[in-house]
Amino acid sequence: MKSRYEELKEKLYRLGDLSLGSIQKRMLTCGDPDCKCARGEKHGPYYYFTYTDPETGEPAQISLQESEVRELRKRIENYRDFKEDLKELLDLEVELRKG
């Protein structure tokens, strides 16, 4: 149990950058009645990073360049791994303290 505890601590230190949120991929219409999107061929894809604004607690979004999506996905995955591993680490710490 102690070796798993140390392994998790080390892993958490090496995770890298974290982001809390999600990526939305959208196909959009422009509103021009003569455009191809009015006939069902939408524009896009467009990518958005959605998150909860830490100051207001309200949902927020930021548009992304397609070139940013891959790195941001990795950061979001890192955050998910961090949460899972931190919970396991804290559970192990409680068990280790119980003896």
From TrEMBL:
Ranges of residues in domain DUF6788: 4-73
Any one Pfam family match given in the protein's UniProt record, by short name: DUF6788
Assigned keywords, A-Z: Coiled coil
Residues forming coiled coils: 62-89
Name by which UniProt lists this protein: DUF6788 domain-containing protein
Organism: candidate division MSBL1 archaeon SCGC-AAA259I09
